[in-house]
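User: Thanks for the earlier help. One more: O-methyltransferase. Can you show the sequence and predicted structure together?

Assistant: Of course, both are below.
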Amino acid sequence: MDQQLQALLTELYEEGQRNDAQAQERRKKRLNLEPETAQLLSVLVRSGKRTRLLEIGTSNGYSTIWLAWAARLNGGTVISIDREAEKHQLADANLRRASLRDVVQLVQGDATSIVADLAGPFDFVFFDADRFSAPAQLNLLLPRLTPDVLVLADNVHSHPDEIADYLATVQNLPDFEHMVLPVGKGLSLAYRHQPSQSVCRS
């Protein structure tokens, strides 16, 4: 990653920290990933040659830039969903500043409704929004995940009660290995490996 993009990411993260210290409403907060978590996601995308990425929870595009940069190196793309129009606009502007807008399809609206209509397949899914809705979203996505998919979620340690149902859902999925990594605010990582013919591409 070049120094210009690194500087932009540092700027966005620091701006997010300042914003969150002042914002009273949760929906106004940036709630950005910790830098070490964002970097780990980027490493996982690059090392696993992931090309069909789905992010639920765009915010200002901080994590989206990390994912898009990695996806571009693999010849891949990112779909990123956020409910808030203001954050959608921020992400759009920041991705343009990063020269990564062409790699990302930004979608604004209710994530559960949106994922129900996504075609897929996805080989990398990252949940970083409403943790209460994540189990239903994961179940909707299962038929459209590649055999060797990685499914991740943030905030395991910072919001254990909110993410408990999601963790239970993941742990009960057949053929998935699951672990929680002590990075940032706690990262749930689930990996599946199945014969390639099991994926649905419709």
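User: Great, one quick takeaway?

Assistant: Helices lie at 3-22, 35-47, 62-73, 85-97, 111-115, 134-141, 160-171.
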